[in-house]
C-alpha cells in the first residue's frame, strides 16, 4: 500500500470531493430552464452593473474589465458586458489555448466579430490583438466563471485550472489583485468548496439576490 504524507492526504481528499461537487453542480446546471436563466441573468447583471458603476465613479476613469463569453447554461452576462462597453469601459474576453492551458485577452465590443473556440465557447477572431502583459497591471476587475462558490471565496470551475493559472500569473505582476467577482445562480453558492493551494479566492459573488462580499474580499479590504 502507498503511504501518503499529510499534504498528499489533504490533496487526495480535496481532489476527490472536488470531483463529486463538480459532478453535482454540472448536473444542477444542466437542469436550468430557459426562463430560470433569463430571469437570474437579468437580476445578477443588474447588481453587477450597479457595483461596477460605483467602482468607476470611485476610480474616476473608465474601467478595464476582464470577463468571459458564457457557454451552456452559465448566467448570460453578455448584456452586462454590452452596457460596460457602451459606457466607455474596456472589456476583454479570453481566447483559450489548449497547448499551454493559458488564456490571452482580447478587446470585446457588442459588434465585434466572434468565432467558436475551444469547448464551443465564443471568442474574438484571432486578428484582434491580445492585451499586452504590461497592460494587465491596470486591470480593475476580473469576472470569473465557475460551477460553485463559497463564502470564503472558494471557487470550483470546470477543472482545467485556466483561471487559477491566470490569476496566479496576475498576482505575480502586481502588488494587489484586482477585484475578482463571479455572477452566479443562488444554488451555485455552496457551504464549502474544497480549496487547494493554487486556488485564488474570489472577492465577491453576485447573485440574483444581490452582491455578497466573501471573507477573502473583506480580509483584503476590498469591501469598500
Ligand atoms: N464561459 C466560460 N469560459 C471559459 C471557462 C468557463 O468555465 N466558462 N473556463 C474555465 O476554466 C475555461 C474553459 N474551460 C473548460 C474546461 C472544460 C470544459 C468541458 O469539460 N466541457 C465539456 C462539457 C461541459 C459540461 O459537462 O457541462 C465538453 O466540452 O465536453 C469546458 C470548459 C476558459 N473559458
Ligand atoms: N497556478 C497553477 N499553476 C499550475 N497548475 C495549476 C495552477 N492552478 C491550477 N493548476 C492545475 O490545474 C488543474 C485544475 O485545477 P482546479 O481543479 O482548481 O481547476 P478549476 O478551478 O476547477 O478550473 P478552471 O479554472 O479551468 O475553471 C489542477 O491539476 C491544478 O494542479
From TrEMBL:
Keywords: ATP-binding, Ligase, Magnesium, Metal-binding, Nucleotide-binding. It is an enzyme of class 6 (ligase). SUPFAM superfamilies: NagB/RpiA/CoA transferase-like. Its EC number is 6.3.3.2. It catalyses: (6S)-5-formyl-5,6,7,8-tetrahydrofolate + ATP = (6R)-5,10-methenyltetrahydrofolate + ADP + phosphate. One of its GO terms (molecular function) is 5-formyltetrahydrofolate cyclo-ligase activity. Pfam families: 5-FTHF_cyc-lig. Belongs to the 5-formyltetrahydrofolate cyclo-ligase family. This is 5-formyltetrahydrofolate cyclo-ligase. InterPro entries: FTHF_cligase, FTHF_cligase-like_sf, NagB/RpiA_transferase-like. Its cofactor is Mg(2+).
Amino acid at each position: 500500500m502507498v503511504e501518503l504524507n499529510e499534504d498528499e492526504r489533504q490533496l487526495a481528499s480535496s481532489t476527490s470531493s472536488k470531483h463529486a461537487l463538480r459532478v453535482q453542480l454540472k448536473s444542477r446546471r444542466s437542469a436550468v430552464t430557459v426562463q430560470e436563466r433569463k430571469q437570474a441573468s437579468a437580476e445578477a447583471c443588474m447588481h453587477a452593473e450597479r457595483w461596477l458603476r460605483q467602482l468607476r465613479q470611485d476610480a474616476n476613469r473608465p474601467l478595464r474589465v476582464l470577463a468571459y463569453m458564457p457557454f451552456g447554461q452559465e448566467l448570460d452576462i453578455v448584456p452586462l458586458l454590452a452596457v460596460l462597453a457602451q459606457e466607455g469601459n474596456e472589456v476583454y474576453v479570453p481566447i483559450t489555448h489548449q497547448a499551454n492551458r493559458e488564456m490571452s485577452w482580447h478587446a470585446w465590443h457588442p459588434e465585434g466579430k466572434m468565432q467558436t473556440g475551444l469547448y464551443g465557447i465564443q471568442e474574438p477572431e484571432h486578428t484582434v490583438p491580445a492585451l499586452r502583459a504590461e497592460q494587465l497591471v491596470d486591470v480593475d476587475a476580473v469576472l470569473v466563471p465557475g460551477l460553485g462558490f463559497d463564502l470564503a471565496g472558494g471557487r470550483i470551475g470546470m477543472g482545467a485550472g485556466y483561471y487559477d493559472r491566470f490569476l496566479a500569473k496576475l498576482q505575480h505582476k502586481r502588488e494587489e489583485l484586482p477585484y475578482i467577482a463571479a455572477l452566479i445562480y443562488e444554488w451555485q453558492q455552496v457551504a464549502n468548496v474544497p480549496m487547494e493551494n493554487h486556488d485564488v479566492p474570489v472577492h465577491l459573488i453576485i447573485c440574483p439576490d444581490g452582491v455578497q462580499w466573501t471573507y477573502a474580499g473583506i480580509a483584503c479590504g476590498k469591501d469598500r
